[in-house]
Amino acid sequence: MSDATSLPAANGAPVTMPTLTATIAHAVRTTPGVVRLEPSMKNSLNRLIAKGTGRVGGPGISAAGVDGIVVSTRDGLTTATVDIATDTAYTAVNVAVAVQHTVRELLSSHGHEPGPVSVSVLSVEPTTP
Amino acid sequence: MAVTSNSTDTTTLGCGRDVDDVWSHIDNPPDAHETTCPDCQAARADLASLNAATQQMVKADLDDPTLRIDPAVLDNIVAIARSEVRRGSKIPLRQGSEGQFEGELMISEHSIATVVRRVSDTVPEVEARRCRIRLTPRTHRFPGGQETEGAGAEPGPALGTTRPSQVSIDLSVTVLPHLAIGELVDSLRNLIILTVTAEIGVEVTRVDITVEDIHDPAEGDPGDDQPDVNGQGSADV
Q1: For the segment A115-124, what is each residue's pLDDT rounded down to a tens digit?
Q2: Distance from CA of A7 to the nearest CA of B (A)
Q3: What pTM does this model have?
Q4: Hey, are the CB atoms on A93 and B114 less than 8 Å from each other?
């Protein structure tokens, strides 16, 4: 994936899409109730395409992805899709809302206009016996 | 190669034959016309070079390890594809006049079904078989009395607000013999509603439990030989 997809940040420092995506991934993983990021078919194919072409997304789209997260920017809006597994000790919908809020806050703090941030809970599992 | 410069027919050779015709059998010996036609002979010579270069590039691509997909990556994708099939479709976690601009919140039907199965496993007299989750359309009643979606009636949410989604659950089970099935099923139903509400955060509007059979505690899992049948728009897990 190319680091050439640099984006302007609010405080002046350019933020590459891979860096932004990695930052979001870390924040999501540390959100209470998130067990892990879940890779999805769409996500994996995007990464495979990126390996071959050096980029994710079509013309006019800057995008990057890690397992469970795809972030893309188009027409001034940055959107994200996040796939997670949640802990049964937490209510899944509350975890999803928290993740959505966290990602939107992160996008804003990195100088992006947040577009839709979609969160999917793909697995709910107990982490303690 | 002598090719006419006519703007509407730029692939015709000086002899009148189309260069595509020559190209189409470049791997074969020249035909009777080509053995005597200087235009075709020149075209064949040029096309033969092009053909050789093309074959060389194809072979180079086939031999280039960087153009091959890592088998481990392929295996990973197949595993993920299988997981996605098992997860079933997704249903929204919240319904209503949601702020679509903020993005969707979804959950796989498999996730909810897994919770239902786990609850069933805590009741020793019960063995869960199939579980199907369905989204129940919310009904909104607007001030004029007009209703949308579903048969019930409730005030619609304000614009920009959402409510927990409503789901119905169909579960088929087998139970141990000599039990009061009605009480057992009621108890299981309440447990499912409480747990799904707590762990998922959706409203469970209905739990239909079908006792399909009686099983002997000495036997194995009665669901072992029961193939799951996936219905359209729902997940049997």
Answers
A1: 999 999 999 9
A2: 21
A3: 0.67
A4: no
DSSP state of B188: H
A26 exposed, middle or buried (CB, 10 Å; 0-12, 13-18, 19+)? exposed
Give the separation between CA B55 and CA B49, rounded to whole angstroms: 10
How confident is the model at residue B174, as a pLDDT? 93
Scanning the structure block, which residue is given the tokens 């399909």?
B212
ipTM of the complex: 0.82
Return all residues near B146 (Cβ < 8 A) that are at least 6 apart: none
For A20-49, what is the mean pLDDT? 85
B115 touching chain A per CB within 8 A: yes
B106 or A57, which is more confident? B106
Burial classification of residue B50, based on how many CB atoms lie within 10 Å of its CB (0-12 exposed, 13-18 middle, 19 or more buried): exposed
- B194 touches A: beta carbon within 8 Å: no
Pair A63, A57: CB distance under 8 Å: yes
Give pLDDT tens digits for B73-82: 777 777 777 7
Which chain B residues are closer than 8 Å to A91 by Cβ? 198-201
Cβ contact A123–B90 (<8 Å) = no
Sign, CA dihedral A89-A92-A98-A102, equals positive
Q: Which two tokens stand for residue A117?
A: 């941030």
Residue appearing with tokens 């369905």: B134
Q: Tokens at residue B107, please?
A: 């959950």
Percentage with pLDDT > 70 across chain B:
76
**pLDDT on residue B131:** 94
Instruction: Give the nearest chain B residue to A94 (CA atoms).
Output: B201
SS3 content of chain A, % helix, strand, coil (to 5): 35, 35, 35
Q: Is B172 on the interface with A (CB under 8 A)?
A: no
